[in-house]
Structures
1.
Amino acid sequence: MEITLSPLSPSFSKTFITSLYELKDGERIRTCLQCGTCSGVCPFGYIMKFPPGKMIGALRAEIFDQVIKADSVWMCISCNACAAFCPSNIPITSALMTRAKEEMLLAGNIPSELQAAMENTQRYGNPLGESPRKRADWTAGIQPEVNILSKTRQPVEVLWFVGDYASFHSRMQPATKALAKILNALGVKFGILGTEEFSDGDSQRLAGERGLFEMVAHKNGQLFKKYKFNEIITTDPHAFNAIKNEYPALGIKYPVRHYTQFLFERLEQLKPLMKKEIKARVAYHDPCYLGRVNGVFDEPRALLTAIPGVELVELSHQRMNSLCCGGGGGGMWLDGFQWEKAHTRLSEWRVREALTVNADILAVACPYEPPRFEDAAKNVDAGGQLKVREIAELIAESMEG
Amino acid sequence: MKIAVPVKFVPDLVEELTIDPGGTALDTSWLRLIINEFDDHAVEQAILLKERVGGQVIVAMAEAEGADDFLFASAAKGADQLIRLTGDFSSSNNHALARALADLLKELKPDLILTGVQAHNDLDGSIGPLLAEYLGLPYVGYVAGLTAAADMVTVRKEYAGGLIAEMEVKLPAVLGIQAAEQPPRYVAYSKIRQVMSTAKIEERAVASLDLSGGITISRMFQPEVTERATMMGGSPEEVADKVIEIFKELGTL
Ligand code: SF4
Ligand code: SF4
């Protein structure tokens, strides 16, 4: 797609860099060594006309309008790899990349797929453009019935923030049902927001739509206030990240954990329930916003190794060095745009890595991933022999024995 | 150039449509409304034109849930004047709506009126030609792109089979927009929020609606299964097996 640009003032580089200084740790950008680590570790760095290190160079040379014109910032999937390995601890992803996307978006320069996701979020409260009335449809048939707080208004131990893809996506719904079954089997008193729930907004934020993020965050915050619960658990690492790291600044403060952390705490209770053997070599993909950004590496692995029969194998990119599935920071809604530029998909690289270590199953813990990796497996030689499973699906399957 | 864009909302097909118990109308209790897609393009085209030749864009619509949000979003994109018609539009039709809009447009005296060429709920004809008739102005529909001169526009009209005609239209005129020259733009939510606190929506009361010329609905119903159609249920695998069986029976496999 051609990006058209509204005229930028010559002082654009200056105003842009000043706006970075106002962000958390933004001043650190002054300490950039121009070492290029960020650009090297970036999965799409080789394709960006201005990878992160060069962006900072352009800022210093006061030619940042060229960066915006080049539109390669839409290749960034906010995976945080650059920031994690920057020797100067510069918040590259959260400050530089996110602000640059915001600038693109304010100028109206946004790829059409991403625009649709944003408009859907504004209108329906979810980027998929599904009817909000259908948000809790996945609960049909689950026994005991899932407690929808707007209907029952009962206090619960745990508020399960189900999230967009886990609620609506047909590939994710079986995994969502699996988690409901596990929670029921553990006797957890949990409830969901049902049709009232809004998108967590984190991926929209990382794709530059700060205003939209704040809008949905406040709507969720109002709902949290309405009901009684001790803590929040999420299916989605992005929701976990938003509620943990971003909502508090908006005055929305609640204890939150990813479901893998919550289940890990109950592992001893869970173990005797998992009777059926799943004899398979299982490779685990660390989701960026569970692992690299929030440091949750061990709990998902502990859950997997507790499943009888499972042999855990590590991918070549793992833990801090994990490779993004390509869905973060708006990447979920930039597939066409990024394919046009790169003619490759990160999810396909990842599937090849799993095949290289002879994995039978690629285990995941983020709702973007089952559809992404399953689609990718169809495009990779011998990909058909690889199964993609949510951790919750594997646990529930083992409990059926 | 003063450009007026009358727009309307239509039922959002994201929700399943149900017929009300009377059997002649949609059940409105669950109805969600959305801007008519072609009207969205008309607004975009008007703003593109304003950016090229200068002038003023007026967006007008009948009141409805979500109408203000749409009007503010239009202002954030570049519309200058926002008008909401108030009144009882519950039993309205396009004839009545076009008459109400025509009264407003006679007052506003725009050089150019752009509106969506059609809408999926146009039961009694589309708004554009009705407006042109009531205003005594020329009308060209299925327009996808135009250039403007002082007292005339050159429009590109699409015909079936990939034919495109260019024609000159004397102003003032009404154009039915098929597609803007570029897809409707995105405005960041923060910009819409800003506009909400600064822009004003003018209200125009519509005293009574003249429904004459419209149609009477005798029955509204969901598509019915005809004898020739075979509905197949089951899992994707089962359906695939059945389809293959049918193809074999028909001799196409
Ligand atoms: S890794 Fe850090 S210090 Fe090195 S070029 Fe990138 S931003 Fe600068
Ligand atoms: S966040 Fe990931 S994709 Fe974006 S610039 Fe950094 S390494 Fe590259």
2.
Amino acid sequence: MSYIVNMQKLNKHFGQLHVLKDIDLQVTQGEVLVIIGASGSGKSTLIRCINGLEDFDAGQLEVDSFKLEPKGKSQQSLNSIRKEVGMVFQQFNLFPHLTVQRNIMLAPLKVRNKSTQDAAKLADKLLARVGIANQAHKHPEQLSGGQQQRVAIARALAMEPRLMLFDEPTSALDPEMVGEVLDVMRGLAKEGMTMLVVTHEMGFAREVADRVIYIHEGCIVEQGTPEEIFDNAQNERTQAFLSRVLSN
Amino acid sequence: MDNQFQFDWQAAYNSVPFLLKGLPYTLMISFGGLIVGFLLGILFGLLSLNKKWYLRWPATAYIEIFRGTPILVQVLFIFYGLPDLIGAPIDPVTAAIIAIAVNSGAYISEVVRGGVQSIAKGQQEAGVSLGLTKVQTFWYITWPQAFRRMIPPLGNQAIVSIKDTSLFSVIGVGELVRQGQVYIANTFTAFEVYFAVALIYLAITLSLSILLRIYEHRSQSAA
Ligand SMILES: Nc1ncnc2c1ncn2[C@@H]1O[C@H](COP(=O)(O)OP(=O)(O)OP(=O)(O)O)[C@@H](O)[C@H]1O
Ligand SMILES: [Mg+2]
């Protein structure tokens, strides 16, 4: 069995703070994984290690059969990995000086060496897919938060990634815009995209996830199907966390 | 009361053609120096952001030295001191251009550094996450945004440097102030002539200010 992400005994410190402790995590092709946990538990750090936005101190990490070394000593495989792994950020991080269409075209043009025509066609196709075909020539700031996040998803998809990472993609959105972004993600999951999603949207997790992982202070405390975690958590920390988030 | 001073408009007006002979020098030194200074500023500004200490330290030293010493001392050093070192004389205009270049370069380095640092880290992260190299990320994402923010302080530096060229009369460059001094030596109309000199500087710096305002206004409504 080959995994698209294979993490073994991954450890990471920020100075004195031990943020990831012996993390073992295997993700198979097509799997949708939702990561939950309290603020500061290490969720972002965990998924940011996968595309090398954070380096790690010890352990093994293979992404799409490229091996990453501890302490950021693998620039070569890092670049290869990043071409195959898309990332969506809480704050969208769209490029404000480029139009929506150009935001999406940039990586296909510069990394995949596509022609301007092909890249523009691809951008328009993806914009249609995320439901904002008519906004191509606007600048990001002219769009609503939900639209911006959908552009960010389209931008990541333009590289035809084999894996998508989402770090709280709806946390910065007004409540009425959360649904439109989750809809796009739901669609991706249905089409078989491998996804790692950090989110506080428990309804989404229950509906879309193949597996839910609960992280507490840098450790994977419990994992299982949504039913196992949400209806029948074994660990009392998981139970406490869930009762806190589900009650409000 | 024999101190009944009367401003002589005619004298001021008459001096202008002679003064304007200095204008090409003022402009050439300002803009020649600023263009080189801009290149130095990009180079040392980016070096000062580098993680490697052996690149960062020399850049920081350059910035601190040329920001921390008067430009008048710098130009005297270049014009009178440097020839001893290189064994050949330097003509005044060249010395003046070098002085503006190294001096404005130090300030522009700080402008570049500040501009690049002001771009949110998430922009770089988004770039490299898409598979762009660090250089591509800088060139297509960070730099264009940083440059926009650098325009006002760059304009400010240009105005400072244009005015700084007035100091180069001390090494005999025939720029605006020098022309004024020569004219006054023959006509004894200091007040009127310096008034005319000041107006010419003001005309240059105001034109630049207006251009910058227009640019800012445009880029704001475009973005
Ligand atoms: N660059 C950094 N330098 C130092 N400490 C950091 C850094 N990034 C994160 N941390 C710390 O590491 C811990 C884990 O952070 P992380 O962002 O992974 O948590 P999280 O689970 O994503 O939290 P949240 O739900 O608030 O996003 C936190 O205590 C955080 O303060
Ligand atoms: Mg986080």
3.
Amino acid sequence: MTAAHADPLGQAQPDGSGRPASSDHAVKIRTQHLSRVVKGVAIVDDVSVDVFHQEVMAVVGPSGAGKTSFLRLINRLDEPTRGTVYLDGVDYRTIPPRELRRRVGMVMQFPYLFPGTVADNIRFAPRQRGEEIRDEEIDRLLAQVDLPGYRERDVSQLSGGEAQRVSLARTLANSPEVLLLDEPTSALDDKAKASVEALIVRIIREQKLTCLIVTHDNAQALRMANRAMVMEKGRLVAVGPVQEVLGAESVLP
Amino acid sequence: MLNQFFHEPIALGLAQAAAVTLLSLGVMFLARYQNIRLEREILVALARGFLQVVAVGSVLVFVLQGPWALGLLVLLIMLVAAAFTAKRRVTTIPQALTVALLGIGVGAGTVILSMTWLGVIDPALTSLIPVGSMIIANAMNTCTLALERFRAEVESHTGLIEAGLALGADPRAIVRPYVQAAVQASMIPRIDSLRSLGIVWIPGLMAGMILSGTDPVYAAIYQFVIIAMIFATSGITALVSVLAVRGRIFTPAEQLILRP
Ligand SMILES: Nc1ncnc2c1ncn2[C@@H]1O[C@H](COP(=O)(O)OP(=O)(O)OP(=O)(O)O)[C@@H](O)[C@H]1O
Ligand SMILES: [Mg+2]
């Protein structure tokens, strides 16, 4: 980490927006008036937020607040009805969708794995670009998600936690710059939750990833994130250092 | 029995129609006895079917005396009508009419034109129109079957498809298994009809030819020719329909449109 990135929180303006005063180059993802209206309902409503390079941003809020919809917009799985997203300052509508999705990887809340082996799933994305990923590389990715020796396992025989980690490894095989995680531990028991959480934090650090993570668990947000953004009814209602935002949250009735 | 009383063909036909209508009404009352209430539907369907087929028969009286090109025009109209019917059955599919027109048009069109040119289909209107309409009707059924199956496959795999998209995959590659499933599923009835030809069923055309005095062996061979043409039509229609719809269930930015 360079000095400029070491403490993104320290750069936050006093208005609480968390935006840096001048170091725009450190903004990895900027959403600008990002909105999606479906059948007259704004499921994401005018969300403008900056996520800094190598920062972990927790996305919190009640069920139905639009957190998943927000991540899907950043991955461009859905089209914004208004506003846009900048990746490294570039309007993402000018980036070919497949390249965008390789660079901004999304791990869904439910791990939809392709039928076949663990290796088939990890080979899938690079193969789409005509790249064949070597077995040693697959083993390295699996070691990263604490699944050594799982290469030839059939995905139908994995536990929920294992499937979730294969899903993560499959996205990491793309060497993404940004990782979008939708409640990655929601289906896991406490023990599995702690281990998945730890390995995610380790991977984000090692690979210098920028990360948005949706979570229902304030304690988890406090453990994992630098900053948090709170959504309600599609709108961004607060953003700032995670202790401040979630501290204030817990004081509310 | 009836032919002892009626000698005029149309009068005989009407008497025969009356007899089968009575039979159908009997079935209707049986159904009613079991609390299956379909009277309205059955009556409407009977009346409608009768009027439609008589109307077509009356038109054929004139058309069959017309020039060769008139036959093509009639088939073209049937083709468009078939596409509209297919479209109505698969409403949730984006641009269903274009897809159906393409699938049915290319499938039935290729087979009808090439086989007529070769002389497999007699260009005389008395043969071109009935054989052509049979081919078009089958193209329509295949098209609906294929699109319906493709829709069902995609809708039940949206999670997997979007997982693939989110990994930066080519949408066409992601839906490849569903394309295969849809084409296969829509071909199975045609394969079955080839396989069971003559054993399980003696198809209408062969029966008709025998009834009108054609040599049964020639009628049998020609029936095989028809079924094989229908098979070829189905193959082309299924492939073209599904490949045409494949690109249309995604936006230009490669987002999945088709959802349950
Ligand atoms: N394709 C869609 N069409 C219509 N409404 C939708 C669609 N997708 C999501 N919604 C609605 O948008 C709102 C936000 O949904 P979203 O899944 O983003 O919420 P969430 O914050 O992720 O909730 P949860 O915490 O329960 O996962 C919900 O009311 C949902 O019903
Ligand atoms: Mg959600």
4.
Amino acid sequence: MSTDTASPRRPAWPLRMWNGLRRNPIIYKEFRSRMRQRRALWFIILPLLGAAGLIILVSLTVLQESNAADFESRRQVGQAVFIVIIGIQATLAMLVAPSISAGALASEHEHQTYDLLRVTLLSARSLVWGKFVASAAFIIFLMLLQVPLLAITFLFGGIEPAEILVHTSVNLASVLYFCSLGVFISSLNRRSLPATIGAYVFAGMLSVFLPIMLLLVGTLVFGAFDSANLPPLMEALMMAGALLLVALSPAGTMLTSEIFLQDGDLWYTTTTLSNGVTLYSPTPWVVFLVLSSLLTLFFLGLTVRRVRKKDK
Amino acid sequence: MSAILQTENLTKRYGRGRQSRLALDSLTFHVEEGDIFGFVGPNGAGKTTVIRILATLLKPTAGEAWVGGYSIRSDTRAARRMLGYMPDFFGVYGELTVREYLDFFAGCYYIPPRERPPLIADLLELVDLGHRRDDDVDSLSRGMKQRLSLARTLIHDPQVLILDEPASGLDPRARVEIRDLLVELARMGKTVFFSTHILADVAEICTRIAIIEAGKLIAQDTLSALGLQQETPQRAITLEVLGEPAEAERILLSIPALRDVQPSPENDLPPERSRWQATFSGDDRALSALLSDLVTAGLPVVHFSEQQTSLEEIFMQLTQGIVS
Ligand SMILES: Nc1ncnc2c1ncn2[C@@H]1O[C@H](COP(=O)(O)OP(=O)(O)OP(=O)(O)O)[C@@H](O)[C@H]1O
Ligand SMILES: [Mg+2]
């Protein structure tokens, strides 16, 4: 009798992954101890206070300049509130996620528990993924706290479902991206403080410094050509370059995606090159989702490898 | 009886090039199932290095080690299942209670959640921490943390416990408690391997020991074979006798129970007296019999005293000359 027929069928990978996460002791432990820290309270209260304050400020400013009953100005208030909430969520993703995740492995060294974990049956992959999921889940939890405020925007109107889709998915993707980056930096440090600083510097390099450098290089390269009659291939390359450049930073992605949305382009956009060929390209947020997901997996893979190697 | 821990030419070099330091030099020893094995050596001898290698946390530069027959190089996971490791530091999470702490590590060994509460209750009872189960781990005393650590090492019912200085930094009472626990664990069928530089611990509970110094193994054997057993202590005898030193020496050398007979180097005695030193092993009854033997043999004894050789002295004798 073959063992294959005797053993139960291996479940599909999403189920296996879910089971793996459910059995992962790290996630539960992290959440429990995180919520017991006094810091957690501030992480919960401050963004809410900030959002409430900004919403009141913005609404009053808009309403002062126009008539409250006026349909258009109500839409404006709705949009302003939306921007505030998305902005706060983006801040959580870009500024809080790296610092939360940078403590992931470094703090185990600080507590002198790293060896205790490594000597158990917990694999390097479970450790890294557990830390990653725990820190991302905490940020997403903080973001969810903002959702009731989002309801206000529906009262006022002026927000398209497409906008919600774009900004929410970009925010979620950047949480994952920055958490994976933070966990990676965490595996290079034995102390939380240098890890946190390192994570901010690295995140800044990737989403601010790198696009600026690319912009400079791009301007130099394409500046050598006569911009009026660029060869079509160059035009296409320039478009692709600009897209990538924008999609390296979540903020850039959100701003440009908004512009495309105004033109009604949600998933893709078309440009006509000088030779009459129509170029189809994905909108920046789609590129960002793909790019950041790949980078997230890359950083996590790198971290797992590092943790495995540290055993030696 | 089979070896549950075994090393073969275990060598560890920290660092590379000229800055490197040889911490372990071709260490070969084994621990048998059921042993309470003391791993003894002065500071910096390489005890922690050996323990971290056996616990699969450090890869040796050369040589091999097996835990329960599984290679720490190639069968890491199987080896980890066999061993419980306690480092020479605590490693606690401030925000967890005693019970949650053990529950977390049970999770790390994939013990099903249903089985954990009774298991944890049993372990807490074993280490006498049941009454503190809902307290923060941070609020425990040093001795309690050490006992909690011991409970943690037991959570997956390992065959062999590898403990780095389990008694260091504890007051005498806590030390005795830990010692009793180790004996209890051995009775439950666990093999206990622990490092220490407290020789009294070794003498009281170990079945076998190994002595390491500057990365080299000096001895591994049972306590009695190494002369460390407290039941048959080595005794240093000092004698003062009257008369001709040559005559005294002849009589002293004729007593077989006396060894290492030699004149005392001090020379503060009146000319008619001579002082001698010798070693003797035996209990008090044998000692008093020795005195009567000496008198019967015609030796005019005017002073007879003994000083029990401390474990430390024997240890110093065994390790002398190898000090780095
Ligand atoms: N990570 C390291 N890097 C470089 N050298 C090290 C390292 N760890 C230990 N050593 C050196 O290896 C030697 C053995 O150290 P080890 O910690 O194993 O000794 P030990 O017997 O446990 O000492 P103690 O009784 O003080 O705990 C020492 O000379 C030490 O300086
Ligand atoms: Mg040590």
